[in-house]
User: What shape does this take?
Amino acid sequence: MKRTKETIVLINCGCAGVQKFARAIRSHHIYTMVMPYTVTAERVMEEAPSGLIFVADAACDKVAAQLAKFQALDMPKIAVNAAADMLPGVKKANAKDDLDVAEVCDFCMKDCACTGSWTMENFVEEAVADIRAQVGDQTVVLGLSGGVDSSVVAALIHKAIGDRLTCVFVNHGLLRKHEPEMVRQIFEDTFKMKLVYVDATDRFLDKLAGVEEPERKRKIIGKEFIDVFAEAAAATNAPFLGQGTIYPDILESIPLDGNPESVIKSHHNVGGLPEDLKFQLVEPVERLFKDEVREVGRILGLPSVMLDRHPFPGPGLGVRHVGAIKRETLRMLQDADNIVTEELHNSGWYAKTWQTFAIFVPVKSVGMKDGKRTYEHVIAIRSINSVDAVTADVVELPWELLFKMSNRIVKEVEGVNRVVYDITGKPPGTIEWE
Ligand code: XMP
Assistant: This one.
């Protein structure tokens, strides 16, 4: 078990904002791990912690009954707000909200003797050493999606073992315009990584031909993806598989009350790879929050266009192209989406929204272009803000910006003569259209 020195264990006794709280403590360079109140004292001791923090939104007898095992551990402890009611004799801290960690940080530095050495620079050094120790002189294969997590893991493993890492980048044909070029440019040209680029566009689009039903589309894309990736990964003969698992994936797969049914989401270790592909996993950022992963990426020299991009769904434009996907209409969506993204960047709005994108709507309407009657397709624009993608608010993009996007789309994208703006929040809408 890998240990980080000066670890503080944060015992979650039923606190909705526990991840935010942990993240806030870490921002003071104090390494904090979250464990549920049902964890055993032995598991806590495996991390050789310097101290324990207890958090709860409300006191609860059932939870309180399980806390005695921690009382017996000989180390500094502090209970925040309502948790103090369940831990008689333990020092109490007050916090205004999940981001108020002043008293708790004071406790970590004074009572637990933390020195504030948890920095991402130190993390990179340790992670590189750990990867080298784990992999030895063997090789690693990694599925590069173009997203933040897999990109940072690629850069980290590459720093540790260089050419013994092979990245596999599968183009399923449903990527954004210029995406394959961008990924290849960064990883092949700049980082000089070994990259296997698999253009499986035809394979995916042939399988998807005529398929309208959203869930079937997703299943086809998911299954093909695993097949194509597994083939390419097996061809490398690497015994190790690099993965971009991050801390929230792990935390949300641990049940707070010990009951597997209370898991928020299950964590699929190998991204659904077939059982017979027996890889050993290398997951160097599994204890980092998303913004820490980004910081590691910056330290390793990944560009902001890669690190600060909007979330993009695994099935790609497949869930933004309503109905059966044809090459011609997919091209319309890629072109329109590219215009939306360009104008967002030009106007400074890209960083102000969580996700903003185009959707292809398989409806034709009558319009006028160059004095002639047209009968062409519709593109929708959607812009939302969110903190966790569970709920989302519509962003009121300036009309001027929307007009610019709309004018460019109808002018530059052949086959589209109308643009509409999606003003539905989540709920009742979902962020993606399919
Ligand atoms: P919905 O549409 O469910 O989306 O409101 C919530 C968030 O998840 C993203 N999303 C996906 N991400 N694979 C992914 O990796 C998927 O199949 C998928 N579907 C939706 C979506 O972009 C939004 O951020």
Observations:
- Residues 214-235 form the longest helix (22 residues).
- The first strand starts at residue 7 and ends at 12.
- The mean pLDDT is 95.
